[in-house]
Amino acid sequence: MSWLQLTLECERNAVERLCALLERFSAVSISLSASSGEAMLAEGIGLREDFWERTRISALLHKDTDLDILLACLRNCAGTEQILGYQIEMVGDKDWVSEVQQSHHPQVFGNRLCVCPGWCTPPDDIPHLIMLDPGLAFGTGGHDTTAMCLDWLVQNDITGRVVIDYGCGSGVLALAAAALGASHVYAVDIDPQALAAARSNADRNQMQFNITVAYPGEIELPIADILLANVLLGPILELAPEFARLVGDGGAVVLSGLLAVQSEECLAAYQTWFNMDTPWYRREWALLHGIRMQGCQSGQD
């Protein structure tokens, strides 16, 4: 069976309206991805309040869909200026499950940690294993921002540490910290899909007693030895005083989800409370890490 695939790029504020319209035209599937380059707090399949500044929408439609009417409705719904371009192509039927599975493989970090989807056989010479399938929440280890955080974790001593994973998505960083010996990990996110995924992944890996999953305001977070935040520049800047309050003297903050060009702005914001190290860069992305200075108030103390 053949399908029509409509791919269009649009501005952030048009995404939800366009997806709702595509659903009314009986789209078989709708997926979202970044067209503008930045990461998200949770990955883009499914609707949420935060979208990329420029978002790519890909919809699979029945081949008898009247495209002239659909395109006219899309322009009328969002405004012609909000739709930055589109492409239509005919695609054959595929084994979509098999295609997804073939694109995800075991990933090894520092010869210490493996993140492995359930349909793969993990290597037998890696001491720490996380079983994790791709889903609705961001974080399988494949994206550069997540991979850099995992690299940081395997290169540092996590044993006995209290860790906060702020903006946990799938919970992959929380799982990694627990696997590497953290005494307890607090995984928080504002997205209910992310919290559901993180709880499910903790249960699957038998880490439910080592990881507390909650909304940020739902629990009183402790002072942490390590705080990880793989989110966006906006929340990272906004939450800087709160992160400074949550990290104990001598503790570490690890920040990712940043474009390399955003690193200087972020460094300037965090140098008030942290001795920041040289950023790590991978392609267009950056990871920042620093140590909490002693006796320096957060501004919320």
Structural descriptors:
4-stranded antiparallel β-sheet, Rossmann fold, 9 helices, alpha/beta, single chain, 28% helix, 8-stranded mixed β-sheet, 301 residues, Alpha-Beta Plaits, 15 strands
What does this structure look like?
The protein is built from nine helices and 15 strands. It has 301 residues and is an alpha/beta fold. It has two domains: 92 residues, Alpha-Beta Plaits (2-Layer Sandwich); 190 residues, Vaccinia Virus protein VP39 (Rossmann fold). Strands 8, 9, 10, 11, 12, 13, 14 and 15 form an eight-stranded mixed sheet that branches. The protein has a four-stranded antiparallel sheet with strand order 2-3-1-4, covered by helices on one side. A three-stranded mixed sheet has the order 5-6-7, covered by helices on one side. Helix 1 packs antiparallel against helix 2 and helix 4 packs parallel to helix 5. The chain is globular and about 65 Å long. The termini are far apart. About 4% of the residues have low confidence.
Overall CATH architecture of the largest domain: 3-Layer(aba) Sandwich
> What are the segments in which pLDDT stays under 50 over at least 5 consecutive residues?
38-49
Biggest sheet features: 8 strands, mixed
Question: What is the CATH homologous superfamily assignment of the largest domain?
Answer: Vaccinia Virus protein VP39
Taken as a percent bin, the fraction of beta residues is: 25-35%
Instruction: Tell me the series of helices and strands, N- to C-terminal.
Output: EHEEHEHEEEHEHEHEEHHEHEEE
Query: Can you identify the CATH class of the largest domain?
Result: Alpha Beta
Structure summary, number of beta strands: 15
Question: Helix/strand-derived class?
Answer: alpha/beta
Count of separate DSSP helical elements = 9
Overall pLDDT, averaged?
Answer: 85
What is the overall shape? globular
End-to-end Cα distance:
62 Å
CA radius of gyration is 21 Å
The helix content is: 25-40%
| Whole-number count of domains | 2
- Per CATH, what is the topology of the largest domain? Rossmann fold
